[in-house]
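Lab notebook, bench 4. Still working through the backlog of constructs that have no structural model yet. Next entry is a single chain of 267 residues. Request: give me the structure tokens for it.
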Amino acid sequence: MKAQSRRWHRFIENAQPGDHAVQILGDADRPTEALSEYVGAGLRSGEPAVIIARDRHWRSLVRDLESRGWGPAALRRERLLNYRDADETLEKFMHDGAPEPEGFARVVGGLLDEVAELFPGQTIRAFGEMVDILWARGEEQAALAVEELWNELARTRGFALLCGYHLDIFDLHVQREALPKIFRTHSHAQPTTSSARLAEAVHRALTDVAGPRGAARVYLDMAERMPATSLPRAQAVLSWLSGTNARLARLVLERARSHYAVTRAVA
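Model written out:
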């Protein structure tokens, strides 16, 4: 298991207060796969979960937890599993297209405080999907503002946070514009559900388009000129290319999309 994969695994299994992770999901990905692992790992240690999600994803999480041997209904009665609808929660603190800091602290911070009082000393495992709703509406600045409000809450409260976004990482605009902004607000990032599949797809695509020597040159240039990053190497390559050579990046992204789809089908 490579360093970044180990880092993500450590977050899932042993999330710490102040950790703020993001999982990027494509259309074909199961949205609650990583979430159920994250929540389940916390429950094994007696850590409560706060889930602010779309109703359909909440129901999917409940099914996932049941398949893992948990009883979600009992967990909710014990307040180890706490759910709020993401759309309804947003309405409580959004004003004129922007999140109101005082309202966010009252609504989201108040929920965290309520759970923390019931489980003193335990790290709360939070999941938020409100930012994805805002991003899907085209309200990108509001989504980033909500991310920063989560970070402000983390300075005074003991919780870890996992966010989920549905984005096409093989789209040049997403690589150039969306992901850099999103990654900057997070301490951990998982650009796909499988870093190994992404690494294979990107390496094959880069070799197809630039040839073995050209691919080696891209890796070398990235290592020499790109600031150190905790991103998976494949995502770092895509970020580097998208920012420095849009023509090559577009070709690599198109080919990587095909390779990733084939690898997914085989897996």
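Notes after review: The chain has a mean pLDDT of 93. DSSP finds twelve helices and eight strands in the chain. Flag for follow-up if needed.
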